[in-house]
Amino acid sequence: MNDKPANLKKRVLIVDDDSSVRESIARVLVDAGYDVLQSGEGEQALSQFDPKQIDLLLLDLGLPKKSGWDIFESFTVKNPTLPIVVITGQSRQLETAMAAGVGALMEKPLDVAQLLQTMHELLTEPEEARLRRLCGYSRDVRYVSRYIRAGH
Is the predicted pLDDT of residue 2 greater than 70, yes or no? Predict the structure, then answer.
């Protein structure tokens, strides 16, 4: 449910409290042709950016003040079809990610090629598939472990 014309670059919001992580991901995404927005805090991101004007959200779980899972919930309430890639250094988040209906869970350190492929898959996925996952009818989270760099 994006209000932008199809010929514009896809807009990605990166929410991560680590500025070096944000900057390095942003450089990669800009080089890959994305329009990139950044925030170091989840509540700030919610107040500054309209979720309906974002094509994809990269969301770190380890945020100050509010957890990444709380921010995930707030974004999905505002835009249930927004593709979200959760990025984390925390272990054992897969069950929570599946229960929450996350599109993808990627453990740090990120593999750039895998990140770009995952983003492409989520951006081309039908909205109905996202809604089914969010409502709990599907548990097809794309998962990239720091130990195993493949698989869904």
Answer: no
